[in-house]
Amino acid sequence: MLTLSNYSLTLHTYAGFLRRVETPRLSELNLTVHPGELVAIIGGSGAGKSLLAHSIMGLLPNNAKQYGQIAFKGHALSGAYPAGVRGRQIALMPQEIGHLDPLAKVGAQIRWAGRRVGLTDVDPAACLAQVGLSKAVADLYPSALSGGMARRVLMALAVLGKPDLLIADEPTVGLDSANREQILQLLRGQAQAQRAALVITHDLSAVLPLADRVVMLDEGRLVGVEHAHAFLEEGEGLQSHHARALWQALPQNGFC
Question: Going by DSSP bridges, is the β-strand pair 2-15/19-33 parallel, antiparallel, or unpaired?
């Protein structure tokens, strides 16, 4: 469904007034995501996880330069972005809750999102229920939401059109265990419906039971791809040193 082939991204900035500097941010990424998969993207702050999501969505600043290719269902995305793909076939649940319109109630924003994906009769209460929020939330402005509530509203907006590929950027931050499980099960359902999900997260322990594969980024480079079921015991089945170090660093695995 999604293929990255030797994909790299640089950002052009200026040092002083005249000298232009090209800074690598993503380097030679090769990855394929198949229908029916939930793939977790793991990495520290600044590893390039959110930048990768924005690259797939075609939401890059003007000073970005791309190399290699991103393809969705065999069609290139790293050139001129195809019409009718963003938001419909590929959807993003962004990390920043500031993506919600501060001047519109939640219910109105859900109806707007529905119209953008071709749905004319959207029930905001039903959309909110699937992310564990009551129908009363539809009458609230974003300023009245906690961070966890706002994040769940963003998820409700992202899944509204049942996209083929859903990219969720830190979907469980600020959620208690019950609501975190509900969101992760919603993402797993995306895969079970023979669509696909990319989940960007720091919470390896929470996503492992539902993931098919784990992709690790470090400073813009892909440093490991592992099957989720290999993260067991002492990590003997893990192929990369980076994966073993990540697994053994978790508190439940002896880190102190």
Answer: antiparallel
